[in-house]
Amino acid sequence: MKTSDRQSHFYQQIYQLVRKIPPGKVATYGQIAELLGRPRHARQIGYALYRVAPDSDIPWQRVVNAQGMISHSPQRQGSDDLQRILLEQEGITFNSQEKLDLRRYRWQPDLLE
DNA sequence: ACGGTGACACCAG
DNA sequence: TCTGGTGCCACCG
């Protein structure tokens, strides 16, 4: 299997898993990578989500960094600001330090799937 | 082809 | 807490 095929397959796995995150819950980049059996590949999750169109059916907004914060970047062309708006619409609140409470909102995937 | 870059994470101080 | 350094590895010019 070519490397490029393995990679796009990995991206599909990422999208499929992110789709399972229910409204009002979030996962971290590292958590997604680990759940897919690739610890330390958190950056790949960011790359995969970067390619997702803002109006996609993939709930890309439900993935944040390990500090419970939205990762900002000029490259995102404002989708980072949109991310916060979408999450707040789902009932998620941010504290004065722009952080959401991971203990409260972290998605716990059902192991029996 | 190759080196800089980055929607990350973790650790030391 | 916060900051800086390090590990990681696909992406892109």
UniProtKB/TrEMBL annotation:
Pfam families xrefs: DNA_binding_1
Protein's UniProt keywords contain Nuclease: no
GO terms under biological process: DNA repair; methylation
Gene3D superfamilies given in the database record: Winged helix-like DNA-binding domain superfamily/Winged helix DNA-binding domain
Keywords assigned by UniProt, alphabetized: DNA damage, Methyltransferase, Transferase
Keyword Transit peptide: no
GO molecular function (one): methyltransferase activity
Methylated-DNA-[protein]-cysteine S-methyltransferase DNA binding domain location: 10-92
Identification of the protein by name: 6-O-methylguanine DNA methyltransferase, DNA binding domain
